[in-house]
Amino acid sequence: MIKINSLKFNYQNNIPLFSGFEISISRGETWAILGPSGCGKTTLLYLLAGLRKPISGQISIGGQLLTRPRPHSGLILQDYGLLPWSTVYENVELGIRVRDFYGPDGKHTPDNFQSKNNISDWLERMGLSEVADKFPSQISGGQRQRTAIARTLALEPDLLLMDEPFSSLDAITREDLQNLTLSLCAEKNLTLVIVTHAIEEAAALGKKVLLLNQAPNKNAHIFDNPNAGQKNHRSSQAFHELCDLLWKEMQHESA
Amino acid sequence: MNRRDVLFATLGLILIWQITALIVHRPILPAPWEVFVVFFKELGNGLLIHFGVSLWRVSAGMALSVLVAAPAGLAIGGSKTMDRFLSPIIYLLYPIPKVVFVPVVLLFLGIGDTAKITLIFLILFFQIIVLVRDQAVGIPPQLIQSLQSLGAGRRALFRFVYLPASLPAILTALRQSIGTAVAVLYISELFATKYGLGYYIYYQGSTLFNYPAMYAGVVAMSLLGLGMYFGVDWLERKWCRWKFVS
């Protein structure tokens, strides 16, 4: 589904974060991108979202060369990106309103887009019905993140990109939302790429864990984690072994 | 600010006025009660028309300034190129007191309503454009990127992010400018007109020496400013509900 070929990217006057970087992600896979601060995790996600452009090389998604944000991709950011002046309902509805604003032009909105109001269903599914009329400042961090997820999924994407979405949540809420995300991805056959700096989160969510190092990243260090998302995976031997391995790799790279 | 506080403040000011009038004890400062009687009498004798004309001029100036300055501020704040070229010009012109342009505007635009509305427009335009531009520049990039990821291009960003984000700044600029706008309205109505509260106050005080009627005009002008102030407050509570939730 996603192919990155010979990617080179750097910010102005900085050393390249990626140079000749290549990965391939299949439809329905869950990937976690892990690495130390400044290694290019978020940049890679923004490149996949079409919000940044490679200096050279290509990124294609679903066989199409990526040149701008793609209507079938959904991006969820660390601070949720909710509009503070809109209620929970209006925030969940926002993507639909943007699509209605443009109509099915194939650029901002998919060609086959048909406006349908599934907002109430998503609010109910995400347990947000009771706070639908509240503003983001009036709800908890977990509810804000659920709102951001509902807003993205209401657009029925095929690719979900998440940038440290659970980092500011307490442990219980975090695990609850991690499980919810995995079950929604499995149900909708979504491809998930999640950026995290937490080793346990990467090992819990990603069937593949991509470990980025200090720039420039040339070769992709990918760790298979086939049991991710399965029941009791977090308490399994394989989970702890992967966490140890990732920990050692990160320490080795930073040494 | 609740209604009870406003009522007490009004009663306090009237009391100070009454005490001062007793101390001064001259026709030039009539007591509040006398002014209020004249005020209601004068409403039927043309004061209401003067009030209406002034209200029209100041409202038109405010509406025009919002319609021109808000989109311009959004455009400048939303585009680095426009910001680089236009912001220095605006920041150079902003501190110049626009009242000094009264004779120039009257010379160029004549003695009709256009000149008076233009003066109010000039004052509010710079206040609004600067505040809206600053607000648009300060919008967190994550909010923009989040909308872009939902498919929003420039037009949708203006509609769904820049405009609502700048609404409080527009209303703040309006609120801050009402006092100046009404003051400029007074000055502009001193010239070549027979309608408007500025004309009415000056005519009653300096030509007829009818001080109670002059103060009735001052009260009407204060009510005009207060009404606009509370009007903007009301709009803010209606359009920016999110700012008032706990």
Structure report:
The complex is a heterodimer of chains A (255) and B (246). In chain A, 34% of the residues lie in helices and 20% in strands. Chain A has 255 residues and is an alpha/beta fold. Chain A folds into two domains: 1-72 and 158-255, P-loop containing nucleotide triphosphate hydrolases (Rossmann fold, 3-Layer(aba) Sandwich); 81-156, no CATH class. The two termini of chain A are 35 Å apart. Chain B has helices at residues 3-24, 32-78, 80-93, 102-109, 113-137, 141-149, 154-188, 197-207, 211-239. In chain B, helix 2 runs antiparallel to helix 8, helix 2 (32-78) runs parallel beside helix 9 (211-239) and helix 5 runs antiparallel to helix 7 (154-188). Chain B is globular and about 70 Å long. The A-B interface holds A 46, 49, 51, 69, 71, 73-75, 77-86, 94-95, 97-99, 101-102, 107-109, 134-135, 137-138, 151-152, 155, 161 and B 140, 142-143, 145-153, 155-156, 159-161, 164-165, 167, 240-242, 245-246.
Would you tell me which CATH topology of the largest domain in chain A applies? Rossmann fold
Strand content of chain B: under 5%
Task: Please name the CATH architecture of the largest domain in chain A.
Answer: 3-Layer(aba) Sandwich
- The rounded Rg of chain B comes to 22 Å
